[in-house]
Specification:
Layout (H helix, E strand, L loop, with lengths): L21 H18 L13 E6 L5 H12 L3 E6 L11 H10 L4 E6 L4 H8 L3 E7 L5 H15 L6 E5 L6 H12 L3 E5 L7 H4 L15 E2 L3 H4 L5 E4 L5 H4 L6 H8 L3 H4 L7 E3 L12 H4 L6 H19 L5
Parallel strand pairs: 1-2, 1-3, 3-4, 5-6, 5-8, 6-7, 8-9
Helix pairs in contact: 1-13, 2-13, 5-6, 5-13
Length: 324
């Protein structure tokens, strides 16, 4: 694989996008371009990470993200070990830090972790010498998903700066939304959040300045009326609505949510003709999005899945030092 034109990324871990610069994200895009070239070949394997061991450690169920990381590692020639919460020693009382240190001692070079508690990947990065990639932690962050979303937008529309991106749905519980807010803002997009008042975090409505005076979140717009939010939108990112939100009293009913916040063809017509429809998956068709929109000509959901492998190949390559 030719990498002479690529500059190494100095980051040892990928925890979130809140401190990524535009230049760093552009570098990831350039590396992803090289990875997509590999995936276009008849034999989609290179020995770049031969001798490296990638461990995927998932404490939550996952298909897309876990398989995507595993394919990415194998495409680069790495050995892959999959560990689930049911097989990890934490089920027997071992602390997660001890589990991580054991995996490090066994020769892991990178640990890709998904955990139901926010902050766990950050904690691991503080205690390990090897690289940690956050594959989703609680409601906090999902950086690789946001990066593949950004890459797909750039691939389809040619740029990100100046675009109006509407994120609609359950913002409160969405790690995808939070990472996208940081990534999109870093790349110069206008971010609009839309959803029921009970599903939009208060800290995003009126962010309190930190001690140094800086704002903890980038500038964004909140619009609770979806029809207004979609006017002149370039990208519509729909989030999955989980049934427990209604059961938890955050929504009066699914029927009302569908009436007010479902993305259908009529609503999508308010956006630009070139507007992209995105969804991190899995989709609840008929609830947050109609089938005709989910699988229509403006949908790039399948492209997101495909690009996810290339983006994660890039991240694995870069955190291991860009050698090969």
């Amino acid at each position: 694989m030719r990498t002479n034109s690529l500059i190494k990324m100095e980051r040892h871990h990928i925890i979130d996008l809140d401190d990524f610069s535009q230049e760093e994200i552009a570098l990831i895009f350039a590396t992803t371009d090289a990875m997509k070239e590999i995936l276009s070949r008849e034999i989609r394997r290179v020995p770049t990470l031969r001798g490296k061991t990638i461990v995927t450690l998932f404490y939550e169920p996952s298909t897309r993200t876990r398989v995507s990381f595993e394919l990415a590692a194998k495409n680069l020639g790495a050995d892959v070990v999959n560990v689930t919460s049911s097989t990890a020693s934490v089920a027997k009382g071992e602390s997660i830090i001890d589990t991580m240190r054991t995996l490090e001692a066994l020769g892991a070079d990178v640990i890709v972790i998904r955990h139901f508690q926010s902050g766990v990947p950050c904690l691991m990065a503080q205690h390990l010498q090897i690289s940690v990639i956050n594959a989703g932690d609680g409601c906090h962050a999902h950086p690789s998903q946001a990066l593949l979303d950004l890459y797909t937008i750039r691939e389809k529309l040619g740029h990100i700066e100046g675009l109006k991106v509407v994120i609609v749905g359950d913002i409160l519980h969405s790690r995808v939304a939070r990472s996208n807010i940081w990534g999109l803002s870093a790349m110069g997009a206008q971010v609009v959040l839309c959803g029921p008042p009970t599903l939009i975090p208060q800290e995003l409505r009126r962010p309190q300045p930190l001690k140094g005076g800086e704002c903890p979140f980038p500038p964004l717009t909140i619009q609770e009326n979806l029809d207004r939010a979609l006017e002149e939108a370039d990208v519509v990112m729909v989030l999955r609505l989980q049934k427990e939100r209604q059961e938890g009293g955050l929504l009066p009913s699914l029927r009302e949510y569908i009436q007010l916040y479902q993305l259908n063809s009529a609503r999508l017509s308010r956006a630009h003709l070139h507007a992209l429809v995105m969804h991190p998956g899995p989709m609840n068709e008929g609830i947050e999005i109609t089938p005709e929109v989910a699988h229509g000509p403006q949908s790039v959901v399948e492209d997101q899945v495909t690009n996810g492998v290339a983006v994660r190949m890039a991240l694995l390559y870069m955190v291991t030092g860009g050698k090969g």
